[in-house]
Design a protein that fits this description.
Elements: E1 3-8, H1 17-27, E2 31-35, H2 43-52, E3 58-64, H3 71-84, E4 89-93, H4 98-103, H5 111-127, E5 131-134, E6 139-143, E7 154-158, H6 161-169, E8 174-176, H7 182-196, E9 204-211, H8 215-219, H9 223-230, H10 236-242, H11 248-256, H12 260-266, H13 269-275, E10 277-279, H14 281-293, E11 298-302, H15 307-317
Parallel strand pairs: 1-2, 1-11, 2-3, 3-4, 4-7, 7-8, 8-9, 9-10, 9-11
Antiparallel strand pairs: 5-6
Helix pairs in contact: 1-2, 1-15, 3-5, 6-7, 9-11, 11-12
Length: 318
């Protein structure tokens, strides 16, 4: 098994983060990816606590949206964390969840342009020089970070073809979202690699994971999450490449009606088998190996938050 990371979504109390981070480090995870969701817990505060509680674990801010956080502020946050914990900070940028942005009254027009300009600004800020940037969305007039030059990698949370390519041309690689079938991950990463044009990059992917000898019990914790994600129309190709006979219209209707019994029938072993890694330890290892074979440099396991479960899951897989 190659590198594993752990994603924390910010739904659990902030007081849990130190224990979660320690468990991730003790279990052998390379990186703790802390999600950035509007209306949830602040990822920078969580990242600071996680870094302080560990010794070598890298911590990533995932994925900061330049629609809700100005790229200068994103660069400030990452640079300050890196000043406190050198070499252990990663910055990820992404558009953000449409419903969250809408709920905050934030428009998210021209996402490709916005992410490209934000990436360029953060990159120039991390170089330590005064930044003169005249973009269509952002402008910086000769200002620099007081932290000085910082070696902080930048990754893009991407799913669309052009955003994936941008992860290769402008960033250090991409993060592929969860509930993505391994064959679709392979297709996505080809676009990132093509964008990189031979430049060295790294790619990451989130995989919802649960270990239990009883597969039904293993699938249960991730059913609603898979349903929430896979109901989106843009996942049609992902579902097709995964090979499961998932009816998205039926899924959307069940989710909208909160008909959880029907949803459990829809998100069964076939769908979970294509879009997650849930089962006994041997099965999960085999499933994750498919994602590594698809080209991921690190699989980010997600869906677990209890420190004991984090520790035992990672140790069972590494």
């Amino acid at each position: 098994m190659s590198e594993l990371g752990l994603a924390i979504d910010g739904f659990t109390p902030a007081t849990d983060i130190a224990g979660q981070a320690k468990a991730a480090e003790e279990g052998g995870a390379q990186t703790l990816w802390i999600a950035t969701h509007l209306f949830q817990r602040d990822p920078v505060a969580l990242a600071s606590a996680a870094l302080a509680a560990t010794k070598t674990l890298k911590v990533a801010l995932m994925a900061v949206s330049p629609f809700s956080v100005h790229p200068v502020y994103a660069a400030m946050s990452a640079a300050t964390l890196d000043e406190l914990f050198p070499g252990r900070v990663v910055l990820s940028l992404g558009v953000g969840a449409p419903n969250d942005l809408k709920g905050a009254g934030i428009e998210s027009d021209r996402p490709l342009l916005t992410i490209r300009e934000a990436t360029e600004i953060c990159r120039e800020m991390f170089a330590g020089d005064a930044v003169h940037f005249e973009g269509e969305k952002f402008r910086i007039s000769g200002r620099r970070l007081v932290n000085g030059a910082r070696e902080i990698p930048i990754f893009l949370a991407a799913s669309g073809p052009r955003m994936l390519a941008l992860g290769g041309t402008h960033a250090d690689g991409a993060i592929v979202s969860g509930a993505t079938a391994a064959p679709f991950v392979k297709t996505c990463l080809k676009r990132v690699t093509a964008g990189a044009g031979g430049r060295s990059i790294r790619n990451y992917g989130i995989v919802y994971t649960c270990i239990d000898p009883d597969q039904d019990k293993a699938i249960a914790p991730v059913r609603r999450t898979l349903a929430f994600i896979l109901r989106g129309e843009h996942h049609a190709t992902n579902i097709e490449m995964g090979g499961s006979a998932l009816d998205q219209d039926q899924l959307r209707q069940a989710f909208s009606a909160q008909d959880w019994d029907e949803l459990e029938k829809i998100i069964g072993p076939e769908v979970a088998g294509a879009h997650a890694a849930c089962g006994d330890a041997a099965y999960v290892r085999n499933r994750l190996s498919e994602y590594f074979s698809a080209g991921l440099d690190q699989v980010i396991i997600s869906g677990i938050a209890d420190p004991d479960e984090i520790r035992s899951t990672l140790r069972a897989l590494l």
